[in-house]
Amino acid sequence: MPQASHYDTMSIRKEFPFFEANPGIVYLDSAATALKPRTVIDALLRYNTHESVNIHRGVYRLSQQATDTVEKVRARVARFVSTADDATAVFTKGTTEGFNLLAHILTSEASKLSDRFAAYASAKPPAILLSESEHHANIVPWQIAAQRAGYKLLYLPANADGYLVPPADFLAQAASTYAIRIVSLSLQSNVTGIIHDLAPYREFAAKAGAVFIVDAAQAIVHVPEHIRSLAPDFSVFSAHKLFGTTGVGAVVGSKPVLDHTDVYQGGGGMITLVEPDRSGYLEAPGKYEAGTQAIGEIYALGAAIDFATQNAAALSAIEADLLAYADEKLAATGIRIFGKTPTPYATLGRSPIYSFEVPGVHAHDTGTILDEQDICIRAGHHCCQLLMRALGVSATARASFSVYNTRDDVDRLIDGIGYVKKIFRTDGHGTKHKAS
Ligand code: PMP
Fold first, then answer.
1. By CB neighbour count within 10 A (0-12 exposed, 13-18 middle, 19+ buried), where does 20 fall?
2. In Å, how far from its chain's centre is CA 34?
3. Farthest-apart Cα atoms in the chain, separation
4. Could you give the CA distance from residue 423 to residue 402 in angstroms, rounded to a whole number?
5. What would the pLDDT profile of 343-356 be if each residue is shown by its tens digit?
6. 95 in contact with ligand 1, CB cutoff 6 A
7. Is 190 in the pocket of ligand 1 (CB under 6 A)?
8. pLDDT at position 168, please?
9. What CATH number should be reported for the domain whose range is 42-308?
10. Given 67, 165, 169, 181, which residue has the most CB atoms within 10 angstroms?
11. Cα–Cα distance between 116 and 226 in angstroms, integer?
């Protein structure tokens, strides 16, 4: 199959110094964290080397310049995932902190939400709707909040291939019993790469008067346009999966809503006036940014959004090419790939993230043997234990591709899987023979 994409992966790849430091390595773990292009590293370095001053509180020009840079990145972040005029971005440590923030403020009695979200005015018992496909970051914070505030947790079931397949009357039944105040779903699975069609759930949330949240941790790099078109009340992501650094991410949502919700962490930088017994708080987003922010990482996030925007066409063409090539090549190996069965369930497609099982071989063994061949994949439950249960496994091996990967990388993976099978002498039907 000839390379379909006319985009030059090799020149994009040169922008990632990782490959100079690690020649010969096949990096197939971008769903865990993406590599960082030089422009992102330079932005982090620029702040820490030349502009290393604090923001928001300095009266001197250097501090004001750094504040301007951070505020411009904030505006870029909000525009990258939202078309709403009133959208703002709250900087967090990442997706996980974003969900902890939302779980707190959307279940706190101090938040004033009933004017905007009718489910908060209902007398029915309150509930939160998630799915079995969610990352633990979009489950555990809700469990903690639900226990504290007396909410019921409901889960849309996933099937044995990772698709969301609620029974026809699931939503109607749930809505007749509970006031579903929060619907929080991931647009794209970090396990299967499936891009779920969330439009029906978005519509359901709007009718139910619920807050609709998108876990955009994976979607932000593959399909940011789908986040924008869903127009969620909040979306949550981490910079490090979008070619940015670790240590920063954002919650994007309506500023007027955030102005009326409870505070989360307290401290410096989020107050108007502190008295012995109480304090006044800034408007959003400032009231959610207690303490010194990850300023260099925010600079780098700005560069990451520039990189993703400038390379958007190349990114989707290269990913589409890798998906088609890897689909064909992997099918021929006889391994089980989760989320790839042709399905009657509505999805918006997939990205080249492959969870797989070499029959008869534990995922960790597959990962270790591939590592011996300089191929980096991930093995485990991928922080999705409810999904693993639905898939009927305890772990999968996962290979995830990005804009710097090539068809050669796919070929190396195929050869590596061949070697795993040889070592374990599997017959392709799950029977493992003794390897000598
Ligand atoms: N949600 C999804 C879908 C993810 O893929 C991840 C990261 N694997 C997270 C949430 C959590 O992101 P972080 O660890 O950066 O907070």
1. exposed
2. 12
3. 74
4. 29
5. 666 678 999 999 99
6. yes
7. yes
8. 87
9. 3.40.640.10
10. 181
11. 24
Residues in the chain: 436
Torsion on CA atoms 39, 43, 48, 49, rounded to nearest 10: 70
Predicted pLDDT at 436: 41
Six-digit token string for 213: 């949240």
Sheet holding 211-215, edge to edge: 87-92, 249-254, 234-238, 211-215, 179-186, 126-131, 152-156
CA 16 to chain CA mean position, Å: 21
Element holding 396 (H helix, E strand): strand 396-400
Catalytic center residues: 383
8 Å CB contact between 22 and 375: no
Predicted pLDDT at 10:
84
* Six token digits for residue 69: 């840079």
Output the pLDDT for position 54: 94
Q: Which atom of ligand 1 is nearest to the CA of 190?
A: 5
Q: Nearest residue CA, atom 4 of ligand 1?
A: 217
pLDDT at 435: 46
Class of domain 9-30+311-427: alpha beta
What separation, in Å, do the N-terminal and C-terminal C-alpha atoms of the chain show? 37
Q: What is the pLDDT of residue 58?
A: 77
Q: What residues form DSSP beta bridges with 234?
A: 213, 253
In the block, tokens 């619920």 appear at 210
- Number of helices (H), then strands (E), belonging to the chain: the values are 16, 17
CA of 339 to the centre of ligand 1 (A): 19
Token pair of 80 as six digits: 């990258």
Which of 97, 119, 243, 220 has its CA nearest to residue 174?
A: 119
Spell out the domain ranges in the chain: 9-30+311-427, 42-308
| Both structure tokens of 94 | 């990442």
Domains 9-30+311-427 and 42-308 share a fold: no
- Residues whose CB is less than 8 angstroms from the CB of residue 368 and which lie 6 or more positions away in sequence, other chains included: none
Q: Residue 192: CB within 6 Å of ligand 1?
A: no
CB-ligand 1 contact for 294 (6 Å cutoff): no
CA-nearest of 168, 150, 135, 169 to 237 is 135
Write out the two tokens for 12: 């994009």
In this structure, are residues 181 and 102 in contact, taking their beta carbons and an 8 Å threshold?
no
Q: What angle do CA 241, 348, 85 make, to 5 degrees?
A: 65
Structure tokens at 158: 């996933």
Q: Tell me which residue of 42, 97, 66 sits closest to 245, measured CA to CA.
A: 42
